[in-house]
Design a protein that fits this description.
Blueprint (H helix, E strand, L loop, with lengths): L1 H34 L22 H10 L2 H9 L8 H6 L1
């Protein structure tokens, strides 16, 4: 029975190692894709709390826009900062 337990433990260890390296490779691939991309965000805004079609509640929408930073972004862009600089360009300034 002890030999059977050792084999199972060895197989479990091998499975753990395989899962670890698979996860690590997947995470590395994801990080490479994220670092090589230009971030763009989609903000979903609920028009009402009842999930009813055609019902728009202004204060609820405004609160969501405020807390997600959309209103602040609009203020900043209106002040003359319409785009983000690349980090390398920022360092050169």
């Amino acid at each position: 029975m002890a030999l059977f337990t050792l084999i199972n433990q060895h197989e479990l260890f091998n499975l753990f190692v395989l899962q670890y390296f698979t996860f690590k490779a997947s995470l590395t691939d994801l990080m490479e894709k994220m670092l090589g991309a230009e971030p763009q965000f989609v903000r979903c805004v609920k028009p009402n709390n009842l999930s009813r079609h055609g019902l728009f509640e202004g204060p609820i929408v405004q609160r969501q826009l405020k807390y997600t930073g959309v209103l602040e972004t609009i203020k900043i862009r209106r002040q003359g900062f319409p785009t983000r600089l690349l980090y390398a360009d920022f360092l050169q300034r």
